[in-house]
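The records we work with from here on pair a chain with its fold. These numbers are not coordinates but entries in a learned vocabulary of local backbone shapes. To see the layout at work, look at the sequence and tokens printed below.

. . .
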Amino acid sequence: MIADRITNIVKSISDTNSDNFFDEICVSLSRAISADFVFIATIDDEKKYATSIAVANRGCTVDNFTYALESSPCAEVSNESICTHSCNIQECYPDDQLLVDMNINGYVGVPLKTNKGHVDAILVALFEKDIGNSQEVETLFLLFSGLIEKELHKSSFVKKIQFTNTIIENAHEAIMVCDKDKNITYINPSFTRMTGYSQDDLKNQTPNVLSSGRQNRDFYKAMWSDINDKGHWQGEIWNRRKDGKEYLEWLSITAIVDEHNELSHYTAFFTDITEQYRAKEKIKYQDSFDELTKVANKKSLFTFIERSVIQYLDYPECTTPAALLVIDVDLFQKFNSLYSHAFGDEVLIQVAARLQSIIRASDIVARTSGDNFALFVNHLINQDSISHFVDKVTKAFNKPFIIDGINIKVTLSIGIAYFKRDAQDVHRLFEKAEQAMFSAKENGRNTYEFFSQRLSDKANTEEAFKVSLESAIENDEFTTVYQPIVSLKHQSVTKFEVLVRWNHQGTWISPVQFIPMAEKFGLISTIGDIVLNKACQELKKLEQMGFTDIVFNVNRSIYEFSTINNDASWLDTINNYDLDPKRICFELTESVLAPENNSCITLLNELQNAGCKIALDDFGTGYSSLNYLRRFPINTLKIDRSFISDMTKVKGDVVLVSAIISMAKALGVTVVAEGVELKQEVDILTTLGCDYIQGYYFSKPLAPQLISQFLTEFQYG
């Protein structure tokens, strides 16, 4: 009888594919033993729950389910026990509600084990009535449990393979498998995405198809030596895509052996790190080279010098083996102002290229700051060698540059310091060459200057002066005096020029001396703010005394226009004293008219729109072009005293002053004559129609406490 059942079960499942084997075996078993339910269930790792993978109910498959093992006969089965109850199963497991709900009376369960002997599934038969021959059911289950276990193992293995394949197919890394002869047998989609090669492209091919040719034979010899000796190699390697483009990959190769420890395959995993490599190279490049001009930067220059001079240190008799040239492009700002910053950048690019074309392989060109370059020249024969080299540089720049169809002439101010003679430390060498460059600029530009002790002494003196200026700012050593400006039309005092004075340790230092130094060291803006604040304080006092129409002329330096917000800070100062901006006139030197200072126009317009007046000081000594003058928002011209003092001596100067006054009136600009000391000068200026007079003829500059008295007692005659 049992043999017939076995035959029927085998026949039933013989034609079944693996996809529905478990369903079919459950159905066949349920029919063979006339069970109400037969199911196969997997057990979780903690053995708390069973989840069916196939369920047969009276010969038909039904939906799967999950249930708790606690207090159930299946718990015993999961613990490697065969559990058989031919009847009254509910009495044995009163807490198993499932048995009650399903009206189960008989139970047979056998464990299903893994190939390691652990129970991970169970085979169960449930009967609503008593089991007639439970021994036969148990025997039949045990007979087919081995087959079911094998299918479970197979199913688990297939799932693992499918899971592994899914990982491989979706891996971001490219994967390649080769046989022991290094023929490519498999690639994943990421491999195709990275290299452009498909599986068909690589049929009967080896990894050599990817070779870029960058690595030499010794590289590959060392790589395969590691693979053969250690079973593994990883590192960076340049390969070539199908389209011919090279790429850098991080490659890991592993040798695979079979159960007999014989080589069977090679697996290779790699990622494209070209972008990371380029990013690192860019950072490395930026760390050593100037991005705009492509020449070395200051850091790279210093490193080059430090490496170069090692060869000279052992030869004390050689005092001028190398020299550093620090170069400034003269009046570079005008290129930005007249054309554009892009134009200025192109100037720098072409300057760098021309300097690069001059040097030898043993020398270096570097861009050290905005419009500054440096050349380090090695292996000089004598001091005359560098002079010849500088002449070569100068001649190279005699030829104009052509940018956007515009011919421009570029000149250079060059400072030169010798290694060893002037300095043996690279930082000191650069500092001394830079001092010489500044001296060349002060001497009129378009020239060169060698570092000397005179320059060193001058630099030390200037540094000491700078310290004194900083101390003067901190200790409030600056005071202001006020020189009257007299209206010829109204024959009254309507304005005062505010002049700064510095008493340093009991000695009065001339503004002619300290103002240029303050401009050079970037202290002029702070001093200008001090003067404006003191002027506003005095103007407020006069206002409170009833002098409400007086205007103070406050000098500001062109070097204070370096930031766009300076005008706002000046206006803020005026507003802080609750003064009308029209009570302040800002005096600027004529250098503001230079073409490179076009950016000042916006700031001057904003000051003027707020109510302030703008005066142009020392007119006639610099950029006195009418074309320049008409572009700037100027209210007043102040004729330089050199023209006034010569009016009574040189007839032509009267004509010149007359022309300036006429030009000013044509532009709607008032005129102040400075430095007036003689009655004859007053008469001439009155005849010429000058608007205002300033000078010793009426008054020297006054201390603040004398202003109100002067205004009260002033009589034009």
Observations:
- Residues 134-170 form the longest helix (37 residues).
- Residues 563-567 have pLDDT under 50 and may be disordered.
- Residues 173-277 form a domain with the Beta-Lactamase fold (CATH 3.30.450.20).
- DSSP finds 24 helices and 28 strands in the chain.
